[in-house]
Amino acid sequence: MSNSVSQEVAKAGTFKPRRALAEELLRHARRPFPWLIVVFTVIVGVAPNVLDDVSLRESLLLAAVYVTLASNLNLMIGYAGYVNFGNIVFFGLGGYIGVYLATTWHVNLVLSALIGGVGVSALAYLFGLGILRLRGAFFALATIGVNEAIHAFVTNFEPWGGATGIYLSMDAYEPLGGPMNGLWLCYYLIVVVMGLSLLLSYAIKTSKFGLGILAIGQNEDAAAVLGVPTPRYKAIIYSISGFLPAVAGCLYFFKSGIIEPNGAFDLTTSIEAIVMLMLGGAGTVTGPVIGAFLYEELRSFLLFSETFSHLQLVLAGALLLVIVLFVPGGLMGWLFARVPRLRKWLQ
Amino acid sequence: MIGILASVIDGVLVGAVYGVAAMGLTLIWGVMNVINLSHGAIIVLGMFVVYFLTNATGVSPYYGIPIVLVVGFVAGVVIYWMSVNRVIGRPILMSLLATFALNMIIIGLATAAWTTSPYNVPISLPGITIQNYTFTGTHIMAAVIAGATAGLLYLFLHYTRPGKAIRAVASNREAAELNGIPTRRVLAMAFGLGVALACVSGALISTLFPFTVLSGGAYQLKSFVVTVLGGLGNPAGALLGGIALGMVEGLATPFTPVSWTPIIEFVLFVLTLMAFPRGIFSFTRP
Predict the structure, then answer these.
(1) Is the pTM of this model over 0.90?
(2) What angle do CA A272, A275, A278 make, to 5 degrees?
(3) pLDDT of residue B281
(4) Hey, are the CB atoms on A325 and B111 less than 8 Å from each other?
């Protein structure tokens, strides 16, 4: 009797031991793709130091920030199928919390970045439980609203300097061994955040949780019927997609030496992240990287060109329109359709 | 007390203009399930058409409104065939991105042409003074024109053949197609109409407040709030929603600084979406 019950339970899977974490990690470590991410991250990290090129460092830093934004946005748009137009709010709010802690309370930079990230994630979770009840276009509109409302709030919030924002003095870099070392340290940290973003994208895509999220992206009602706890999963992915951008925001604005509301909550940057994602291919791990680097190249080309410097927005818009109308899968989608065997190597 | 009342009445007058902007948005949504994210840019276009017409001819900006209507309609039809036609029926992300791309293109071109410095349409109308409070003539005139536009839209949708075709396509596209209605062309017409309404509201706003190339964003946000208040896809509700938003703004103005307005609007927006997803004013099923 007891034997048959235990068989029943075992069949239902309750007693199936969870696969040990070490085994799980080993399974991933045998695949080439995570190592590709690690190698890429290390190359980006050491390249400007080896070549001793500060301007290369600046452009790679911007590219790394873009990759972080696009790749975490991908978790929402590419995986869960929810359009987050106001994704920059994570970056800006994380930046504000982190820079405020680092300057006013002299908290260690890494610690304040992490606190910024955790704070933004917690807020995103609470917000997510509410606004993720909205679907499709309504959710997209609400995310624009979240960004605009927090923008307006910070502009009126005196402890954070109101409309003028927070300026960092040179002393702020003293704990990092002076401005010179501080800038390099910020660069390395941002590259690490970029690498973590990519590993996160990969880990989620290959996990059971990720399977649930992808199911929500395909057909939310069907996913709910099959037992995916959709409201909780959506709130969790929304919250996760806010963590690393918030950390990157703190590092980026700390490095810039100034944070002010119009720069921190710029809706255009939000949309640029969407352009990068669509350009590279939504739903893939590699896509956002390719999209971000291409877009960064294009942007710096446009900024320095005589004819196009005023038309940067126009060209970004035209690019987005062409992708949406003719290549909705982005570069990676196009490539995977042509060379299906690439799927074995790239995600 | 009377001060608050005056502020609320003024809010209602301005709110009617928001209503017209939202009617355009809600018409497009109701007919083709597309949220037009280039709405703000198009409102700005309407503002500039009036500005240049008034500067070039020197006549009152109100005479420019029929021209704005025509320009808006043509622009809307062009936009439809250029970017919206291909994304109809595809995931909502695609139409959002396509219209947003358009928004970037228009704003980018407008910024390159007219920079982001503020513009102003010179106009003065005698106002009505009750005790110490003056209701500006331009606000009253704008509300009257907004009301007339809403009335004309209602007549058009209910008593003309093209209007009936639009409503038929909105309620069931396949059935409309089976009955011999050229639905693609009707969709293009509906989009043109929606854009024309946005342009008219922009024209009216330009007579009320100074504006820049970038003002569109704020009015777009207001249009969304109004649309949601009135129920998506419900043009009659949009006018009521606009008036409601105007009242809320009028009520809030004496008590809070202007920079808090977006926060109030956003909270209203999300709360309405959650509590009344079909809008406060949708008495009938859309």
Answers:
(1) no
(2) 150
(3) 66
(4) no
